[in-house]
Every structure is written in C-alpha cells, then in structure tokens.
Amino acid sequence: MPKALSQFSITQEADGYVLQIEDEDGETTEYSATLEQIDDIAIAIEDLDIVDEDDPALLGEDDEERVEDED
C-alpha cells in the first residue's frame, strides 16, 4: 500500500533542482532533477484536470464556466 504524502518542496540549486518528498511517517527522500523533469511533473499535474469546485481560487476560467452552467 502506498504511503500518504505529507509534504513536498522543490528548491533550485546551482546544478539543477532538488525535489524533497516527506511521507506520513516523517521520512524524507530527496531527488535531484533537471528543469525538464520538474516541468514534466507540472504538466502531469495539469493533465489530471483536478477541479475543486468548493475553492474558487483553484478554478480556471473554463472551470468557472462549467460550474456556472451546472447551476
């Protein structure tokens, strides 16, 4: 069973980026990454098309129209 994500951070270093992931047990793992890999992560998240209709700050223009149409 996968562990639950507690938090993560991405920091820029002189030679790339560091992705730090902490699980529910407080265990932290660090990964070095290129800008392209960080961009791939961002694109993968965007591709999920996650919409939280209860939080208007997270809605894009298209999502706002979809919620208004449902009312």
Description of the structure:
By secondary structure, the protein is of the alpha+beta class. It has one domain. Helices cover 32% and strands 32% of the residues. It has a three-stranded antiparallel sheet with strand order 1-2-3. The longest helix has 13 residues. The model has no long low-confidence stretch (mean pLDDT 84).
Short description:
This protein has 71 residues and is α+β, with helices and mostly antiparallel strands. 32% of the residues lie in helices and 32% in strands.
Percentage of β-strand residues = 25-35%
- Helix % is 25-40%
Provide the number of structural domains.
1
State the total count of DSSP E strands.
3
Shape: extended
The rounded Rg comes to 16 Å
Q: List the secondary-structure elements in sequence, H or E.
A: EEEHH
The helix tally amounts to: 2
Poorly predicted tracts of residues: none
Distance between the termini: 39 Å
Main β-sheet description: 3 strands, antiparallel
Class by alpha and beta content: alpha+beta
Query: Roughly what is the average pLDDT, rounded to an integer?
Result: 84
The spatial strand order of the largest sheet comes to 1-2-3
Furnish the topology, listing elements before pairings.
Blueprint: E1 5-13, E2 16-23, E3 28-33, H1 35-47, H2 61-70
